[in-house]
Amino acid sequence: MSDLIDFKELHWLLTVTQSIDVGVVVLDHAYQVHVWNTFMENRSGVLSYKAANRSFFSLFPELNERWLKNKIDSVMTLGTPAFTIWEQRPYLVRFPSYQPITGQEEFMYQNTTLLPLRSTTGVITHVCLVIYDVTEVATNRLQLQAANRELQKLSSTDRLTSLYNRGHWEEALRLEHARHVRYGTSAALVMFDIDHFKRVNDTYGHQCGDRVIQRVADVVREHTRDADIAGRYGGEEFAVLLPDTDKHGGAMFAERLRAAVEALDVMHEGESIRCTISLGVADMIAPMDDYKTLIERADQALYASKKNGRNRVSVDEAD
């Protein structure tokens, strides 16, 4: 009677294994397949009788064989389960995604568990590999992360120019000043504004003025390095923080920027509009109480450019 019960229990177990919506594969020491459930058949396109006694790696040649063998061998040697999660490894075997909601994904995201299987004598003879489809969870998480990144970008970006807003670049300047105080590094700040900008607005309208600001911002992007922090100060005023640069390097950058803006053509309703900028440069070499002192010095140099005829670069003289 007990043998009959054991047979029934085994039959039920096999039925459950075939019916559950996870992949179940049992491998021996030679990594050959002994169990291959319906999930695996449907996702891989390989029927169980064709998978039986074949190497798991021959069925999925794209696998990182060395990595997975080490994982399986560790489970067999230590007798403890092992796991993989989609955040670290998006999938173990590449299956297409069949989720009706998340069908835009190219593949099925997977979590996996490797379980040691013991014989009746207690010896580990096989490993059970369980593959979970977590595509919907992964997609939701990735979409949330993307949304958070976009919100972070929006919170630090000026909407008109797509440069950094004042809050972001000023915080970057504060951190750069703290780095200067601790390590003695240098940084230059270039501040500039568009000459006679009110005349552009009054003559052509605010939409045209916005277009001029946007095109000047484009020029700034073209001339800055990845490490530079370019932002809008407000209105037609801009600031560019140049890490690891002194005021002489800042002046060279400012002159290139000035010449590029002077050569810029901004088209508005078929008419070409030209503009110039006035720039001021200061650096952190001179003693200063805090980062705001650098803004004041660069702003004073900018004022000197405007006072001396505009469309020029002036450098702070403090040592």
Automatic annotation (TrEMBL):
Chief location of this protein within or outside the cell: membrane
Localization: Cell inner membrane
SUPFAM superfamilies: Nucleotide cyclase, PYP-like sensor domain (PAS domain)
GO cellular component: plasma membrane
UniProt superkingdom: Bacteria
Catalytic activity: 2 GTP = 3',3'-c-di-GMP + 2 diphosphate
Species in which this protein is naturally found: Pseudomonas lutea
Protein name: diguanylate cyclase
Pfam families linked to this entry: GGDEF
Domain GGDEF: 185-318
An annotated Gene Ontology molecular function: diguanylate cyclase activity
A GO BP annotation: cell adhesion involved in single-species biofilm formation
Cofactor(s) needed: Mg(2+)
SMART domains documented for this protein: GGDEF
E.C. number: 2.7.7.65
